[in-house]
Amino acid sequence: MIGRLNHVAIAVPDLAAAAAQYRGTLGATVRDPQDEPDHGVTVVFIELPNTKIELLHPLGPDSPIRSFLDKNPSGGIHHICYEVEDILAARDRLKADGARVLGTGEPKIGAHGKPVLFLHPKDFNGCLVELEQV
User: Fold this and answer.
1) 41 has a pLDDT exceeding 90
2) Distance from first CA to last CA of the chain, Å, rounded?
3) pLDDT for residue 5 is more than 90
4) Where are the domains of the chain?
5) Rounded CA gap, 127 and 44, in Å?
6) Banded pLDDT at 1 (limits 50, 70, 90)
7) What angle do CA 93, 109, 66 make, to 5 degrees?
8) What are the residue boundaries of the VOC domain, all occurrences included (predicted)?
9) Residue of 17, 45, 113, 118 with fewest CB within 10 Å of its CB?
10) Degrees (nearest 5) of the Cα angle 127, 133, 134?
């Protein structure tokens, strides 16, 4: 059902500093910051030959990333995103197998302009999983 790894998301307390570290120290291609108000985050994508890193920073006081950073002030891995061909079929299969879909269960449009869903970390070995339709 799942396809390739789309990205690994890292919550960061200082988006500009983290982007500069990837650009300067690691020599990566770093995209411009992008606000995602529906998800309460500002994102910066780091382009790698085989996948992407998504740097996440809170957008506003109610951001879910704010509470993550309160618990992890230095930041850390927030979620892993896998590609799926049909997000609704994937959701239905996962729910039938007992996995919990976060939110309303209806896909939202993610940072790549494609439908996404999140799966409860307690159902996936403590890892928040994002599915993105490609």
Assistant:
1) yes
2) 12
3) yes
4) 5-133
5) 21
6) confident
7) 100
8) 4-134
9) 113
10) 120
CA dihedral 91, 97, 102, 108 (to 10 degrees): 0
Mean pLDDT, range 68-89, rounded to an integer:
97
User: Average of pLDDT values for 38-42?
Assistant: 94
Residue type, 94: L
Count of Cβ atoms closer than 10 Å to residue 60 Cβ = 12
The CA angle 56-77-87, to the nearest 5 degrees, is 75
What mean pLDDT comes out for the span 58-74? 94
Read off the tokens for 33: 């910051």
Q: Is 50 within 8 Å of 7 (Cβ atoms)?
A: no
- Which residues have a Cβ under 8 Å from the Cβ of 40 and sit 6 or more positions away? 58, 59, 60, 62, 63, 64, 65, 66
Look-up of token digits 């500093």: 17
The tokens describing 112, both together, are 């790549």
Helix (H) or strand (E) holding 92: helix 87-96
Fold for 5-133, please state it.
Answer: 2,3-Dihydroxybiphenyl 1,2-Dioxygenase; domain 1 (3.10.180)
Catalytic position from the list 54, 83, 130, 132: 130
Would you call 130 a catalytic residue per the annotation?
A: yes
